[in-house]
Specification:
Number of domains: 2
Protein name: Shikimate dehydrogenase
Radius of gyration: 19 Å
Pathway: Metabolic intermediate biosynthesis; chorismate biosynthesis; chorismate from D-erythrose 4-phosphate and phosphoenolpyruvate: step 4/7
CATH class of the largest domain: Alpha Beta
Number of helices: 8
Strand content: 15-25%
Mean pLDDT: 95
Distance between the termini: 11 Å
InterPro entries: Aminoacid_DH-like_N_sf, NAD(P)-bd_dom_sf, Shikimate_DH-bd_N, Shikimate_DH_fam
Order of helices and strands: EHEHEEHEEHEHEEHEEHEH
Shape: elongated
Helix content: 25-40%
Largest sheet: 6 strands, mixed
CATH superfamily of the largest domain: NAD(P)-binding Rossmann-like Domain
Keywords: Amino-acid biosynthesis, Aromatic amino acid biosynthesis, Oxidoreductase
Structural class: alpha/beta
Strand order of the largest sheet: 2-1-3-5-6-4
Organism: Sphingobacterium faecale
CATH architecture of the largest domain: 3-Layer(aba) Sandwich
Number of strands: 12
């Protein structure tokens, strides 16, 4: 039995386990299992695979997408540039173990964003600059989309939320929420941007997928903006993980 799993803490709510186990059942894959490994300290990570040759890969989630890099032997091009990993392969040859990290969040974001892009979508406003934003910034750079980062404090971004005005909103027709604001159960919250200046030329993308339509997206929808949640991105990165792991089986 091949083992795959997700590391992070806490892991009380995870899309990944249900997704992969359902996939395995649907596709009659009987020799692979996927489970959750809630580790309180990233230094517990090697204990999972060092003495268990069944492990072939991991997903990584909060808060370890950056700190796990210190345990890896190699990074893919995008993972190295982004500085965050959400997918790992475990390769074994004789007694040597080789861990390689990937970032499939960027793949998922790019593939779900590009079909929505129109001629009006020339600059992006990125809300938040934590780990979730890293793949978004990488994708914007790759697609040649200039961006400004909005943070709560001036020293951690280009702009603060208080700086936002009509001119800035007019000039940034792609707005991506990379913050956790609005995630269930706090569905009555949204990033504090001047929604009155949103128009039908805007594209609002929320990395959040629970709830399906956040208050951020509802406010954009009320202004006839194009809206998109993070669910397709999640599916795309999950399928990409599976492709990467399968090559290593």
């Amino acid at each position: 039995m091949i083992k795959l799993g997700l590391i992070g803490f806490p892991l009380s709510h995870s899309f990944s386990k249900n997704y992969y186990l359902t996939k395995f059942e649907t596709e009659n894959i009987t020799d692979v299992n996927y489970d959750l490994y809630a580790i309180e300290d990233i230094h517990m990570f090697p204990s999972l695979f060092l003495n268990d040759e069944k492990f072939k890969g991991f997903n990584v989630t909060i808060p370890y997408k950056q700190s796990v890099i210190g345990f890896l032997d190699e990074l893919s091009i995008e993972a190295k540039e982004i500085g965050a990993v959400n997918c790992i392969t475990v390769q074994r040859e004789d007694k040597e173990i080789h861990l390689k990290g990937y970032n499939t969040d960027a793949f998922g974001f790019e593939k779900s964003l590009t079909p929505l892009l129109k001629k009006d979508h020339k600059r992006a406003l990125i809300l938040g600059n934590g780990g979730a934003a890293k793949a978004v910034l990488y994708t914007c750079n790759k697609l040649g989309i200039p961006y400004s980062i909005v943070s709560r404090t001036a020293f951690s971004g280009d702009l603060t939320y208080k700086d936002l005005n009509k001119e800035i909103i007019d000039n940034h027709t792609i707005i991506v929420n990379c913050s956790p604001v609005g995630t269930s159960p706090t569905v009555d919250q949204c990033p504090e941007i001047p929604y009155d200046y949103i128009t039908n030329k805007h594209l609002l993308y929320d990395l959040i997928y629970n709830p399906q339509e956040t208050l951020f997206l509802k406010k954009g929808k009320s202004k006839s903006a194009t809206i998109k949640n993070g669910y397709e991105m999640l599916l795309l990165q999950a399928d990409k993980n599976w492709e990467i792991w399968k090559e290593n089986f």
